[in-house]
Amino acid sequence: xxxxxxxxxxxxxxxxxxxxxxxxxxxxxxxxxxxxxxxxxxxxxxxxxxxxxxxxxxxxxxxxxxxxxxxxxxxxxxxxxxxxxxxxxxxxxxxxxxxxxxxxxxxxxxxxxxxxxxxxxxxxxxxxxxxxxxxxxxxxxxxxxxxxxxxxxxxxxxxxxxxxxxxxxxxxxxxxxxxxxxxxxxxxxxxxxxxxxxxxxxxxxxxxxxxxxxxxxxxxxxxxxxxxxxxxxxxxxxxxxxxxxxxxxxxxxxxxxxxxxxxxxxxxxxxxxxxxxxxxxxxxxxxxxxxxxxxxxxxxxxxxxxxxxxxxxxxxxxxxxxxxxxxxxxxxxxxxxxxxxxxxxxxxxxxxxxxxxxxxxxxxxxxxxxxxxxxxxxxxxxxxxxxxxxxxxxxxxxxxxxxxxxxxxxxxxxxxxxxxxxxxxxxxxxxxxxxxxxxxxxxxxxxxxxxxxxxxxxxxxxxxxxxxxxxxxxxxxxxxxxxxxxxxxxxxxxxxxxxxxxxxxxxxxxxxxxxxxxxxxxxxxxxxxxxxxxxxxxxxxxxxxxxxxxxxxxxx
Length: 556
What we know:
By secondary structure, the protein is an alpha+beta fold. The chain has eight helices and 30 strands.
């Protein structure tokens, strides 16, 4: 059976017990909440019905329900005290049934959830998932999806779009592991969540007993620091005797801000100022939209970023499968991770006009920012916390972006303060682009269609979190023409413009205080043709070494 993305999806907490449920399921689309007796056909999971790879090609409407059905049996030797059904992401509201019994419900399209299905199991099992996707007709988080898509807003998608899988564990299993490196004290802080009292960790070539559910401070002799030049990972094995065994990894590294020899506040890695030069990555694929056809797609994209001379990726308004972060960890790519936006209808006065006027509004005005719904505000704050907890163990993540360009922004000062308590080990951008509330670690600029002018800023590092957007359309690889950004007819003119932009907006501004830059963008996405590579990933528009020669001149 065809099982795309069937490799174990979570290297940060790997165990041998694993069954992939990706592959061919039955599906039905109806306006009835009653589970249908007859289904419409076959769908390939984990591809949304809107995608070519799913085999369906239907855009789910807010008043429609998408049903999935899978029949399966489990070998008796697989079943232990708990059988955990994992959904890596289902967009947007998912209700799960097993053998005609309700297992649980999850709201939110970008984070994983799980259920223990052991109490519902039979010899032969029928799994049904009911999905509703309100896209941009509600306050729920939606990212860049929009029913009336076009320009910077993309084709909406629904349903299961990341791996579905099973694992079976004993009662006293390793529920989670949290690694917090402290290079200043030369130690790694390890916290293992479990109903067991003690675990054994195989670390630094020796077995060491550690207490569960508390911080264990372990000295790291002869520290080897993680960096883009040397992305060293420490791999560990953790056991709870007779109950469970997992493998994981961590890295010794520190992200912070610090003053350089000229007194300019810079972004820093391992207590050394570092200019983070990155590229915006939306994580969209032509045939799978938010889902790659295989994990090789991830590797190709990341290696292209390295070959272009960047040391960072801004993962824009999307959360990836954990394997993507593992590939960045291994290859030394610093990740700026965006939280996913929601809220009701966005006012153009809030999300577009500031690009021209540079006006900043107070984000306690919930109505103006599309955040009047109190339940929605509480839900998204919890999503932000869950995002941090989900990705906490990814060494590559160096910066969290809380809000972008006013999309559903609210109470960013208070949210920033709350997030820092949860994870004080990363840099924060509370408002990428505009509507600056004068908090967090950085003053974040988005500049298009004009040269960059740095503001006066003494208390925060200045970053150019979006700029560029140069367009080189490739005939035969365009969904629509792009009329928003500056367009070029040939490679020579494009390369000259890129070089001029980097010299004018980035290199000349570094002595004045610019500490990082994120170019827009890695790939074309639908109507946006401002990528280094086409949407179908078939054509790299400019030879990477030519871009790298320019990018190599960007440094402190």
